[in-house]
Amino acid sequence: MKILLVGGGGREHAIAAAVKRSPQNPLLYTVMSKMNPGIAALSEDVLIGDEKDAAAVAAFAEKNGIDLAFIGPEAPLSAGVSDALWNAGVPAVGPKKDCARIETDKAWARKFIEKNGIDGNPEYAVFTDYEEAAAFIDKLKDVAVKPAGLTGGKGVKVMGDQLPDIAAAKEYTKEVLKGDSVVIEERFIGEEFTLQAFVDGKNLAFCPTAQDHKRAYEGDVGPNTGGMGAYTNAGALLPFLTEEEYETAKRIMKETVAAFPKETGEEFKGMLYGQFILTKRGPKLIEYNARFGDPEAMNVLSLLETDMVEIMKAVTTGTLDQLEVEFSKKATVCKYAVPAGYPDEPKKDAEIEVSADAGAAIASEKTGPNSDLIIYYSSVYEKDGKIFTTGSRSVGVVGLAETIEEAEKIAQNALDNQIKGDLFFRRDVGTNALVQKRIDHMNEIRSEK
Question: pLDDT per residue over 57-111, tens digit each?
Fold first, then answer.
């Protein structure tokens, strides 16, 4: 089998390693905008170019006789790369452009959910006029402000968090409206969690739930980032999540998938990522993504036991219901090492040194659920056999163990002793104190009913 991967970040390194673990010994070909040394080491051939250039991606696939493709990031999906691959006779894991709107157009997504009677929406409205938006903010009083388009996970601002008061919410709304329409929503209060699923158009195979940490600094403060780390529990449920709440989130995602054909004329085939918040009224939907999360892909794909190539076949042929997609029952903690000064003034071109022991843990066909440590390269580059930072997240370090506590210690030990450079990371991701804080917060919210 010849597999094409589009994308070059930490998420895609996790996808590449999962593909290469397949007992079918597939050959991997990759299109990425910058050379990721971890992915390059697993690839037969690499095209360094624009991941959004649908014609170039399709031509590379045809030249190499690709059998199946996996599209990692959101930007190529928005640009119609999946459509181009299917048109070239290459089945792709990644929704076509019209279905990817569930992520790429937040206004469309809210209307889609509302129109199809799916649970989880907040009270919301979409605006192009500032005065109307300001009046709606005055009405709701406690809001989230979202640019309608793609922002790389950094555009959403919430009152009581990045926005201290109504005046700040209005000011940010004015800023967004200079280049985009704006979605104003009621602010949900609770604990966020991520539920991801492989989708074949009708059937969903769910991954373990994860919790991402967007804020740059410990204690959930500082600017938003693409994600500083995430953890999963042993099994499907995070420690603060009940079986009933989990089933509600799954039902919302199943109803969403069922609604795509009548709305777009296309089935959703790829990864659907539900970003939920657990409130006193149960799980509510913050947003959907049309691809794996980053870092959450590193957590769940480290645990994947089922042949990734078989999953890709099932997604593209609509036969996921005939395949048991299984994950190890271990817990994981992923911590991102990022350049000093990230995200506002990241230090670029700083060398990263990975010890010989940790080097053996760099994600490949040899790593997986039986590992206790897996290291994924993200936005780094290699020169003269050395690894250097760019301006974005550098290295994802995943600990795997029987408990979150043990997994956190494995990840933190690697960051402290096996990876050197002008880097920083959040020590609190996956710690007992942080996880207990989440449990206590949800117990407090549930007691308010």
Answer: 999 999 999 999 999 999 999 999 999 999 999 999 999 999 999 999 988 999 9
User: Which residue spans within 234-280 are E strands per DSSP?
Assistant: 269-279
Element (H, E) at 244: helix 243-264
CA atoms within 13 A on the CB side of 184: 28
Q: What does the pLDDT read at residue 397?
A: 98
One-letter identity of residue 204: L
Q: What is the dihedral of CA 94, 96, 98, 104, to 10 degrees?
A: 40
Among 75, 145, 72, smallest CA distance to 104 is for: 75
Q: What is the pTM of this model?
A: 0.94
Query: 305: how many CB neighbours lie within 10 A of its CB?
Result: 14
pLDDT tens per residue, range 199-214 = 999 999 999 999 999 9
- Chain segment 399-444, per-residue pLDDT in tens: 999 999 999 999 999 999 999 999 999 999 999 999 999 999 999 9
Q: Report the largest interatomic distance among the alpha carbons of the chain, rounded to a whole angstrom.
A: 60
Pair of tokens at residue 60? 């590379």
Distance CA 3, CA 88 (A): 15
Parallel, antiparallel, or unpaired: how do β-strands 92-93 and 45-48 relate? unpaired
**How much of the chain exceeds pLDDT 70, in percent?**
99
3-state SS, residue 307 = coil
Cβ-contact 73, 48 below 8 angstroms: no
Look at the block and give the residue holding tokens 């609770």. 190
CB atoms within 10 A of CB 207: 25
Distance of alpha carbon 251 from its chain centroid, rounded? Answer: 20
Distance from C-alpha of 361 to C-alpha of 365, rounded to nearest angstrom: 11
Based on the number of CB atoms within 10 Å of its own CB, is 231 exposed (0-12), middle (13-18) or buried (19 or more)? Answer: buried
Please list the residues that pair with 279 across neighbouring strands. Answer: 282
* Other beta carbons less than 10 A from residue 327's beta carbon: 22
